[in-house]
Amino acid sequence: MKQNKFSGIRASRAVGSAALAVALAATLAACGKSEQKSGQALVKVGKEEVTALQLNEELQRVNVPVAQQAQARKQILESLVDRQVLLNQALEDKVDRDPKVVQAIERAKALIIAQAYMQKHTGTPAKPTREEIQAYFDKNPLLFTQRKVIDLRQLNIATSDMSDELKKEIDGAKSLDEVAGWLDRNNIKYARQQISRSTAELAPALSAKLVTLPKGQLFIVREGDRSTLMTITDIKETPVDLASAEAQITQFLANSRTKDAAAAELARLRAVAKIEYLNKADAPGATAPAAPAPAAATPAASADVNARGVAGLK
Questions:
Q1: Residue 263 belongs to what H/E stretch?
Q2: Rg (CA), the chain
Q3: Do 229 and 187 touch, CB atoms closer than 8 A?
Q4: What is the DSSP string of 69-130?
Q5: According to the model, what pLDDT value does residue 312 have?
Q6: Vertex 78, ends 95 and 13: CA angle to 5°?
Q7: Could you write out the three-class secondary structure of 128-172?
Q8: 3-state SS class at 268
Q9: Distance separating alpha carbons of residues 6 and 217, to the nearest angstrom
Q10: Which 8-state DSSP code applies to residue 39?
């Protein structure tokens, strides 16, 4: 299929429009006050200026390679002019006083400040050692040395259609096609799909479960209002050696250290902060309302696995 030569331009404009909307909401924090901007003025938009400092910050933010900065400079400058034109009109229309806009600005401001604090106090994590990388590699064979690709056929069905009669049919069926035929005869909508998933993409518990199931066995994965009847058609060995995985493991361990450091700092701050829950039911450890009792599992459901949280090594 040929790609439309204008598709990239449209995508670029769509991304630019979204970024412009976010930038506008953040900029409205000025609340109508004209503030002195630092940096050499490049363009005047009404009484306001677009400065070289703003342009340089945007170039750094989008990480434009040095060789392409001259080409990107004019485009980014025009986007800054567009933003200032919109901001000027928004302030004239008193959009900054809209309660929803004020709330959005406060939320964005709080997130930015909290993130800046974490970056300042957690710093850059130490690079994982060769021993740590090796240990992670050895501890997770399904991600590396025993990595497999699982080919699956599936029928996607609304959970509301998973009647006792359908469950009985699934229990007695020998193949996915038998179930599909029953669904056709009973005018129940479904969608067929064939997918392949690596054990490195799936949650560890799900991977460990799937690789033990025999080919052809039916099992159900339930996710909210959708249920998926699946069967494994093939499992292929796709091992990865340490040299190929080292960069990925390094990044994963570094990210984990950053998260751990942030969690520890937050726990420290909560321990010394005065926190009072005005509604006692909201307090941690408060008894939650009882959930409805789950429906009894059928024999076919004994192979149920939870696909929520499926993620690759990141």
A1: helix 242-272
A2: 27
A3: no
A4: HHHHHHHHHHHHHHHHHHHHHHHHTTGGGSHHHHHHHHHHHHHHHHHHHHHHHH-SPPPPPH
A5: 33
A6: 80
A7: CCHHHHHHHHHHCHHHCCCCEEEEEEEEEEEHHHCCHHHHHHHHH
A8: helix
A9: 47
A10: S
Quick one: pLDDT at residue 133?
A: 96
Provide the residue type at 136 as one letter.
Y
Alpha-carbon distance 157 to 230, whole Å?
11
Residue pair 26/106 in contact (Cβ under 8 Å)? The answer is no
pLDDT tens digits for 26-66? 555 444 444 556 669 999 999 999 999 999 888 888 877 77
Q: What angle do CA 219, 309, 140 make, to 5 degrees?
A: 90
148, β-bridge pairs: 237
End-to-end CA distance of the chain: 31
- One-letter amino acid identity for 203? A
Query: Could you give the C-alpha distances from 6 to 9, 18, 72, 73, 218, in angstroms and in order?
Result: 5, 19, 18, 21, 45
User: Quick one: pLDDT at residue 290?
Assistant: 62
- CB crowding 274-308: b at 16 or more within 10 Å, else e: eeeeeeeeeeeeeeeeeeeeeeeebebbebebeee
Residue 73 CA to chain centroid, in angstroms?
A: 31
**Calculated CA dihedral for residues 42, 45, 49, 50, nearest 10 degrees:** -50
**Cβ pair 155, 146 in contact under 8 A:** no
Phi, psi of 264 (to 5 degrees): -65, -40
With 0.90 as the threshold, say if the pTM is over it: no
The structural domains of the chain, with segments of one domain joined by +, span 11-122, 129-282+298-314
